[in-house]
Amino acid sequence: MLNTPKGLRLHIGLFGRRNVGKSTVLNALTEQQVSIVSDVAGTTTDPVEKPLELLPLGPVVFIDTAGIDDTGELGAMRIEKTKKIFDRTDLALVICEGNRFDQFEQEIVGRLAELNVPYIIVINKIDVCAPSAEHIASLEKTHKRVVTCNAKDSIGILELKQAIIKAVPDDWINPPTLVADLCGAGELAVLVVPIDLEAPKGRLILPQVQVIREILDNDGMSLVVKERELVDVFEVSKRKPAIVITDSQAVLKVCADVPCDVKVTTFSILFARYKGDLHSFVEGVFAIDSLRDGDKVLIGEACSHHSIADDIGTVKIPRWLRQYTGKNIVFEKHAGHDYPDDLSGYKLIIHCGSCMFNRREMLNRILLAESQGVPITNYGIAISYLQGVLQRTTEPFAGVHYMVTQRLRKY
Prior knowledge:
about 400 residues, Rossmann fold, 3 domains, 16 helices, four-stranded parallel sheet, alpha/beta
Protein backbone atom coordinates (compact mmCIF):
# COMPACT_ATOMS: atom_id res chain seq x y z
CA MET A 1 0.00 0.00 0.00
CA LEU A 2 2.86 2.40 0.79
CA ASN A 3 4.07 2.04 -2.81
CA THR A 4 0.70 3.06 -4.26
CA PRO A 5 1.20 6.18 -6.45
CA LYS A 6 -0.28 9.39 -5.06
CA GLY A 7 -2.49 9.70 -8.12
CA LEU A 8 -4.38 6.59 -6.98
CA ARG A 9 -4.81 7.71 -3.36
CA LEU A 10 -7.74 9.48 -1.74
CA HIS A 11 -6.53 13.05 -1.05
CA ILE A 12 -7.66 14.38 2.35
CA GLY A 13 -6.85 18.06 2.96
CA LEU A 14 -6.69 19.70 6.40
CA PHE A 15 -7.71 23.37 6.39
CA GLY A 16 -8.26 26.02 9.05
CA ARG A 17 -6.82 29.02 10.85
CA ARG A 18 -3.36 29.09 12.33
CA ASN A 19 -2.89 27.29 15.62
CA VAL A 20 -6.21 25.41 15.66
CA GLY A 21 -4.30 22.13 15.73
CA LYS A 22 -4.32 20.97 12.12
CA SER A 23 -0.89 19.39 12.46
CA THR A 24 -1.87 17.77 15.77
CA VAL A 25 -4.97 16.28 14.11
CA LEU A 26 -2.80 14.94 11.27
CA ASN A 27 -0.32 13.39 13.70
CA ALA A 28 -3.16 11.79 15.67
CA LEU A 29 -4.78 10.38 12.52
CA THR A 30 -1.51 8.92 11.25
CA GLU A 31 -0.20 7.98 14.72
CA GLN A 32 3.11 9.50 13.64
CA GLN A 33 4.92 12.81 14.09
CA VAL A 34 4.37 13.90 10.50
CA SER A 35 4.07 17.65 11.08
CA ILE A 36 5.93 19.87 13.54
CA VAL A 37 3.62 20.90 16.39
CA SER A 38 4.11 24.18 18.24
CA ASP A 39 2.13 26.75 20.19
CA VAL A 40 3.54 29.35 17.80
CA ALA A 41 0.98 30.28 15.16
CA GLY A 42 2.05 29.66 11.57
CA THR A 43 4.42 26.75 12.24
CA THR A 44 3.26 24.94 9.10
CA THR A 45 4.39 26.91 6.05
CA ASP A 46 4.40 24.63 2.98
CA PRO A 47 1.81 21.86 2.56
CA VAL A 48 2.92 18.62 4.25
CA GLU A 49 1.85 15.32 2.66
CA LYS A 50 1.65 11.95 4.40
CA PRO A 51 0.66 8.81 2.46
CA LEU A 52 -0.62 5.87 4.48
CA GLU A 53 -3.19 3.10 4.53
CA LEU A 54 -6.45 4.01 6.24
CA LEU A 55 -8.51 0.86 6.71
CA PRO A 56 -10.95 -0.05 5.33
CA LEU A 57 -10.51 2.65 2.63
CA GLY A 58 -6.99 1.64 1.63
CA PRO A 59 -4.31 4.06 0.39
CA VAL A 60 -4.84 7.75 1.19
CA VAL A 61 -2.68 10.87 1.39
CA PHE A 62 -3.25 13.52 4.06
CA ILE A 63 -2.25 17.10 3.21
CA ASP A 64 -1.59 19.52 6.07
CA THR A 65 -1.77 23.20 5.07
CA ALA A 66 -0.78 26.61 6.36
CA GLY A 67 -3.36 28.69 8.22
CA ILE A 68 -5.88 30.39 5.97
CA ASP A 69 -5.65 33.50 8.22
CA ASP A 70 -1.88 33.95 7.83
CA THR A 71 -0.61 37.53 7.67
CA GLY A 72 2.14 39.54 6.01
CA GLU A 73 3.81 39.12 2.64
CA LEU A 74 5.05 35.59 3.38
CA GLY A 75 1.67 34.75 4.89
CA ALA A 76 -0.07 35.73 1.66
CA MET A 77 2.23 33.38 -0.24
CA ARG A 78 1.43 30.56 2.18
CA ILE A 79 -2.30 31.20 1.75
CA GLU A 80 -1.94 30.94 -2.02
CA LYS A 81 -0.21 27.57 -1.63
CA THR A 82 -3.00 26.44 0.67
CA LYS A 83 -5.65 27.48 -1.87
CA LYS A 84 -3.92 25.36 -4.52
CA ILE A 85 -4.58 22.29 -2.35
CA PHE A 86 -8.34 22.76 -2.76
CA ASP A 87 -8.02 21.67 -6.39
CA ARG A 88 -6.66 18.22 -5.52
CA THR A 89 -8.67 17.53 -2.38
CA ASP A 90 -11.16 14.65 -2.51
CA LEU A 91 -12.29 15.12 1.09
CA ALA A 92 -11.60 18.06 3.42
CA LEU A 93 -11.26 18.38 7.19
CA VAL A 94 -12.09 21.94 8.28
CA ILE A 95 -10.41 22.35 11.67
CA CYS A 96 -11.70 24.94 14.13
CA GLU A 97 -11.93 25.37 17.90
CA GLY A 98 -14.46 26.31 20.54
CA ASN A 99 -17.46 28.29 19.30
CA ARG A 100 -15.46 30.06 16.62
CA PHE A 101 -16.73 29.62 13.06
CA ASP A 102 -16.48 32.91 11.26
CA GLN A 103 -15.14 34.51 8.08
CA PHE A 104 -12.18 32.23 7.48
CA GLU A 105 -14.08 29.00 8.07
CA GLN A 106 -16.95 30.23 5.87
CA GLU A 107 -14.46 31.04 3.13
CA ILE A 108 -13.07 27.51 3.28
CA VAL A 109 -16.42 25.71 3.18
CA GLY A 110 -17.64 28.11 0.49
CA ARG A 111 -14.73 27.20 -1.78
CA LEU A 112 -15.20 23.50 -1.05
CA ALA A 113 -18.89 23.78 -1.92
CA GLU A 114 -18.00 25.47 -5.25
CA LEU A 115 -15.76 22.52 -6.08
CA ASN A 116 -18.33 19.99 -4.80
CA VAL A 117 -15.78 18.62 -2.30
CA PRO A 118 -17.28 16.85 0.74
CA TYR A 119 -15.98 18.07 4.09
CA ILE A 120 -16.12 17.41 7.82
CA ILE A 121 -16.13 20.15 10.45
CA VAL A 122 -13.62 19.14 13.14
CA ILE A 123 -13.84 21.07 16.43
CA ASN A 124 -10.46 20.51 18.06
CA LYS A 125 -9.05 21.41 21.51
CA ILE A 126 -12.25 20.55 23.38
CA ASP A 127 -10.05 20.12 26.48
CA VAL A 128 -9.17 23.84 26.32
CA CYS A 129 -12.40 25.35 25.02
CA ALA A 130 -15.42 23.08 24.73
CA PRO A 131 -18.04 24.19 22.18
CA SER A 132 -21.59 24.75 23.34
CA ALA A 133 -24.32 22.27 22.47
CA GLU A 134 -26.10 25.07 20.59
CA HIS A 135 -23.00 25.77 18.48
CA ILE A 136 -22.59 22.08 17.57
CA ALA A 137 -26.29 21.78 16.70
CA SER A 138 -26.07 24.87 14.49
CA LEU A 139 -23.07 23.49 12.61
CA GLU A 140 -24.71 20.09 12.20
CA LYS A 141 -27.81 21.71 10.77
CA THR A 142 -25.80 23.63 8.16
CA HIS A 143 -22.85 21.36 7.48
CA LYS A 144 -24.14 17.91 8.56
CA ARG A 145 -20.82 16.27 9.43
CA VAL A 146 -19.34 17.60 12.69
CA VAL A 147 -16.81 15.84 14.94
CA THR A 148 -15.35 17.07 18.23
CA CYS A 149 -11.91 15.99 19.42
CA ASN A 150 -8.88 16.60 21.56
CA ALA A 151 -6.24 15.55 19.04
CA LYS A 152 -3.35 16.07 21.45
CA ASP A 153 -4.64 13.17 23.55
CA SER A 154 -6.21 11.29 20.60
CA ILE A 155 -9.69 11.76 22.05
CA GLY A 156 -12.33 11.65 19.30
CA ILE A 157 -9.85 10.49 16.62
CA LEU A 158 -11.58 7.13 16.18
CA GLU A 159 -14.87 8.97 15.60
CA LEU A 160 -13.11 11.23 13.11
CA LYS A 161 -11.78 8.21 11.18
CA GLN A 162 -15.30 6.76 11.09
CA ALA A 163 -16.65 10.09 9.79
CA ILE A 164 -13.97 10.13 7.07
CA ILE A 165 -15.01 6.67 5.92
CA LYS A 166 -18.67 7.71 5.72
CA ALA A 167 -17.89 10.94 3.86
CA VAL A 168 -15.74 9.44 1.11
CA PRO A 169 -17.11 10.40 -2.34
CA ASP A 170 -18.91 7.67 -4.26
CA ASP A 171 -16.74 8.23 -7.34
CA TRP A 172 -13.70 7.26 -5.28
CA ILE A 173 -15.31 4.09 -3.96
CA ASN A 174 -16.49 3.23 -7.50
CA PRO A 175 -13.97 4.92 -9.82
CA PRO A 176 -14.44 5.07 -13.62
CA THR A 177 -13.10 2.10 -15.53
CA LEU A 178 -9.79 2.31 -17.34
CA VAL A 179 -9.96 -0.59 -19.79
CA ALA A 180 -12.16 -3.32 -18.29
CA ASP A 181 -15.12 -2.45 -20.53
CA LEU A 182 -12.91 -2.73 -23.63
CA CYS A 183 -11.31 -6.09 -22.83
CA GLY A 184 -13.60 -8.52 -21.08
CA ALA A 185 -12.93 -11.81 -19.33
CA GLY A 186 -11.12 -14.23 -21.63
CA GLU A 187 -10.40 -11.51 -24.23
CA LEU A 188 -6.98 -10.42 -25.46
CA ALA A 189 -5.54 -6.90 -25.48
CA VAL A 190 -2.30 -6.18 -27.33
CA LEU A 191 -0.26 -3.38 -25.77
CA VAL A 192 2.30 -1.63 -27.95
CA VAL A 193 5.13 -0.23 -25.84
CA PRO A 194 8.01 1.44 -27.71
CA ILE A 195 11.39 1.22 -25.99
CA ASP A 196 12.98 4.57 -26.80
CA LEU A 197 14.85 7.35 -25.00
CA GLU A 198 11.76 8.23 -22.95
CA ALA A 199 11.20 4.66 -21.74
CA PRO A 200 12.46 4.33 -18.13
CA LYS A 201 15.28 1.85 -17.67
CA GLY A 202 14.22 -1.56 -16.41
CA ARG A 203 10.49 -0.91 -16.04
CA LEU A 204 7.26 0.16 -17.70
CA ILE A 205 5.63 3.52 -17.05
CA LEU A 206 2.66 3.83 -14.70
CA PRO A 207 -0.15 4.03 -17.33
CA GLN A 208 1.08 0.81 -18.97
CA VAL A 209 1.28 -0.97 -15.61
CA GLN A 210 -2.20 0.18 -14.60
CA VAL A 211 -3.72 -1.01 -17.86
CA ILE A 212 -2.08 -4.43 -17.52
CA ARG A 213 -3.26 -4.73 -13.92
CA GLU A 214 -6.88 -3.87 -14.75
CA ILE A 215 -6.92 -6.36 -17.63
CA LEU A 216 -5.67 -9.07 -15.26
CA ASP A 217 -8.14 -8.04 -12.56
CA ASN A 218 -10.89 -8.45 -15.16
CA ASP A 219 -9.66 -11.96 -16.13
CA GLY A 220 -8.49 -10.75 -19.53
CA MET A 221 -5.15 -11.38 -21.24
CA SER A 222 -2.51 -8.87 -22.24
CA LEU A 223 0.27 -9.28 -24.78
CA VAL A 224 3.00 -6.63 -24.68
CA VAL A 225 5.09 -5.96 -27.79
CA LYS A 226 7.17 -3.20 -29.34
CA GLU A 227 5.82 -1.48 -32.44
CA ARG A 228 8.13 -3.40 -34.79
CA GLU A 229 6.79 -6.77 -33.62
CA LEU A 230 3.11 -5.84 -33.82
CA VAL A 231 2.61 -7.24 -37.34
CA ASP A 232 3.93 -10.62 -36.19
CA VAL A 233 1.16 -10.83 -33.57
CA PHE A 234 -1.51 -11.10 -36.24
CA GLU A 235 0.50 -13.67 -38.18
CA VAL A 236 1.16 -16.06 -35.28
CA SER A 237 -1.83 -15.53 -32.99
CA LYS A 238 -4.93 -17.68 -33.40
CA ARG A 239 -6.99 -15.23 -31.35
CA LYS A 240 -8.10 -11.83 -32.65
CA PRO A 241 -7.45 -9.11 -30.07
CA ALA A 242 -10.40 -7.26 -28.61
CA ILE A 243 -8.33 -4.09 -28.76
CA VAL A 244 -4.83 -2.79 -29.46
CA ILE A 245 -3.56 -0.07 -27.11
CA THR A 246 -0.46 1.87 -28.11
CA ASP A 247 1.82 4.60 -26.93
CA SER A 248 0.68 7.76 -28.73
CA GLN A 249 4.05 8.34 -30.37
CA ALA A 250 3.65 5.12 -32.37
CA VAL A 251 -0.05 5.59 -33.16
CA LEU A 252 0.34 6.23 -36.90
CA LYS A 253 2.33 3.04 -37.52
CA VAL A 254 0.08 1.00 -35.25
CA CYS A 255 -3.10 2.15 -36.97
CA ALA A 256 -1.55 1.17 -40.30
CA ASP A 257 -0.50 -2.28 -39.05
CA VAL A 258 -3.72 -3.25 -37.24
CA PRO A 259 -6.56 -4.77 -39.35
CA CYS A 260 -9.59 -2.51 -39.73
CA ASP A 261 -11.85 -4.90 -37.81
CA VAL A 262 -9.71 -4.56 -34.65
CA LYS A 263 -10.21 -1.51 -32.46
CA VAL A 264 -7.24 0.74 -31.62
CA THR A 265 -6.69 3.43 -29.02
CA THR A 266 -3.83 4.87 -26.98
CA PHE A 267 -2.84 4.80 -23.32
CA SER A 268 -3.20 8.57 -23.17
CA ILE A 269 -6.76 8.47 -24.54
CA LEU A 270 -7.67 5.83 -21.95
CA PHE A 271 -6.37 8.18 -19.27
CA ALA A 272 -8.27 11.10 -20.77
CA ARG A 273 -11.40 9.18 -19.83
CA TYR A 274 -10.08 7.70 -16.57
CA LYS A 275 -8.61 10.85 -15.02
CA GLY A 276 -10.53 13.57 -16.83
CA ASP A 277 -13.43 13.96 -19.23
CA LEU A 278 -12.98 12.40 -22.66
CA HIS A 279 -15.76 14.40 -24.31
CA SER A 280 -14.28 17.74 -23.17
CA PHE A 281 -10.80 16.77 -24.32
CA VAL A 282 -12.00 15.68 -27.76
CA GLU A 283 -14.12 18.82 -28.14
CA GLY A 284 -11.07 20.90 -27.27
CA VAL A 285 -8.75 19.36 -29.86
CA PHE A 286 -10.59 20.98 -32.77
CA ALA A 287 -9.33 24.37 -31.57
CA ILE A 288 -6.01 23.42 -33.19
CA ASP A 289 -7.43 24.48 -36.54
CA SER A 290 -8.12 27.98 -35.21
CA LEU A 291 -4.56 28.69 -34.03
CA ARG A 292 -2.85 31.72 -35.52
CA ASP A 293 0.63 33.25 -35.50
CA GLY A 294 1.60 34.38 -32.02
CA ASP A 295 -1.10 32.38 -30.21
CA LYS A 296 -0.04 30.90 -26.88
CA VAL A 297 -0.54 27.21 -26.08
CA LEU A 298 -0.12 25.90 -22.55
CA ILE A 299 1.53 22.48 -22.17
CA GLY A 300 0.45 20.95 -18.86
CA GLU A 301 2.25 18.03 -17.21
CA ALA A 302 1.36 16.30 -13.97
CA CYS A 303 4.92 15.43 -13.03
CA SER A 304 8.12 17.47 -13.02
CA HIS A 305 11.08 15.94 -14.84
CA HIS A 306 14.11 16.97 -16.82
CA SER A 307 13.30 17.17 -20.51
CA ILE A 308 15.30 14.91 -22.82
CA ALA A 309 16.44 15.82 -26.31
CA ASP A 310 13.17 14.72 -27.98
CA ASP A 311 10.75 15.25 -25.09
CA ILE A 312 7.10 14.68 -25.98
CA GLY A 313 5.74 17.80 -24.27
CA THR A 314 8.44 20.35 -24.99
CA VAL A 315 9.75 19.15 -28.35
CA LYS A 316 7.54 16.70 -30.27
CA ILE A 317 4.07 18.14 -29.73
CA PRO A 318 5.21 21.74 -30.43
CA ARG A 319 6.98 20.51 -33.57
CA TRP A 320 3.95 18.57 -34.82
CA LEU A 321 1.63 21.51 -34.08
CA ARG A 322 3.80 23.97 -36.00
CA GLN A 323 4.08 21.54 -38.92
CA TYR A 324 0.32 20.91 -38.98
CA THR A 325 -0.77 24.54 -38.67
CA GLY A 326 2.14 26.24 -40.40
CA LYS A 327 1.87 28.92 -37.71
CA ASN A 328 4.42 30.44 -35.34
CA ILE A 329 2.84 29.30 -32.09
CA VAL A 330 4.20 30.21 -28.65
CA PHE A 331 4.37 27.39 -26.09
CA GLU A 332 4.50 27.64 -22.30
CA LYS A 333 4.97 24.60 -20.07
CA HIS A 334 3.71 24.21 -16.51
CA ALA A 335 4.67 21.02 -14.66
CA GLY A 336 3.48 19.45 -11.42
CA HIS A 337 1.08 21.47 -9.26
CA ASP A 338 2.49 24.75 -10.64
CA TYR A 339 -0.42 25.89 -12.76
CA PRO A 340 -1.75 29.38 -13.58
CA ASP A 341 -5.12 30.55 -12.27
CA ASP A 342 -5.54 32.96 -15.18
CA LEU A 343 -5.76 31.00 -18.44
CA SER A 344 -7.26 33.81 -20.51
CA GLY A 345 -4.01 34.42 -22.41
CA TYR A 346 -3.98 30.91 -23.92
CA LYS A 347 -5.78 29.78 -27.05
CA LEU A 348 -5.43 26.09 -26.20
CA ILE A 349 -4.27 23.82 -23.35
CA ILE A 350 -2.72 20.44 -24.11
CA HIS A 351 -2.38 18.32 -20.97
CA CYS A 352 -0.61 15.04 -20.34
CA GLY A 353 -2.54 11.93 -19.30
CA SER A 354 -2.23 13.04 -15.63
CA CYS A 355 -1.35 9.57 -14.34
CA MET A 356 0.38 11.22 -11.34
CA PHE A 357 -2.68 13.33 -10.40
CA ASN A 358 -5.84 12.25 -8.69
CA ARG A 359 -8.93 12.62 -10.85
CA ARG A 360 -10.30 15.60 -8.94
CA GLU A 361 -7.30 17.78 -9.74
CA MET A 362 -7.60 17.01 -13.45
CA LEU A 363 -11.35 17.64 -13.45
CA ASN A 364 -10.79 20.97 -11.70
CA ARG A 365 -8.30 21.97 -14.40
CA ILE A 366 -10.92 21.16 -17.03
CA LEU A 367 -13.53 23.23 -15.17
CA LEU A 368 -11.08 26.12 -14.81
CA ALA A 369 -10.40 26.08 -18.55
CA GLU A 370 -14.08 25.87 -19.47
CA SER A 371 -15.00 28.69 -17.06
CA GLN A 372 -12.52 30.96 -18.87
CA GLY A 373 -13.51 29.80 -22.36
CA VAL A 374 -10.17 28.12 -23.12
CA PRO A 375 -10.28 24.80 -25.04
CA ILE A 376 -8.41 21.93 -23.37
CA THR A 377 -7.30 18.58 -24.76
CA ASN A 378 -4.70 15.95 -23.86
CA TYR A 379 -1.51 14.61 -25.39
CA GLY A 380 -2.94 11.42 -26.89
CA ILE A 381 -5.98 13.06 -28.42
CA ALA A 382 -3.90 15.89 -29.87
CA ILE A 383 -1.34 13.50 -31.35
CA SER A 384 -4.03 11.29 -32.91
CA TYR A 385 -5.67 14.39 -34.42
CA LEU A 386 -2.40 15.75 -35.78
CA GLN A 387 -1.55 12.32 -37.24
CA GLY A 388 -4.98 12.03 -38.87
CA VAL A 389 -6.14 8.95 -36.94
CA LEU A 390 -8.44 10.40 -34.25
CA GLN A 391 -11.49 8.79 -35.84
CA ARG A 392 -9.80 5.41 -35.56
CA THR A 393 -8.50 5.82 -32.00
CA THR A 394 -11.86 7.01 -30.64
CA GLU A 395 -13.79 4.12 -32.18
CA PRO A 396 -13.90 2.15 -28.88
CA PHE A 397 -15.92 5.02 -27.33
CA ALA A 398 -19.19 5.16 -29.26
CA GLY A 399 -20.53 8.59 -28.27
CA VAL A 400 -17.21 10.38 -28.69
CA HIS A 401 -16.50 8.52 -31.93
CA TYR A 402 -19.80 9.73 -33.38
CA MET A 403 -18.96 13.32 -32.39
CA VAL A 404 -15.53 13.08 -34.04
CA THR A 405 -17.02 11.61 -37.21
CA GLN A 406 -19.60 14.39 -37.46
CA ARG A 407 -17.04 17.11 -36.84
CA LEU A 408 -14.59 15.75 -39.40
CA ARG A 409 -17.34 15.61 -42.04
CA LYS A 410 -17.66 19.39 -41.78
CA TYR A 411 -14.10 19.93 -42.97
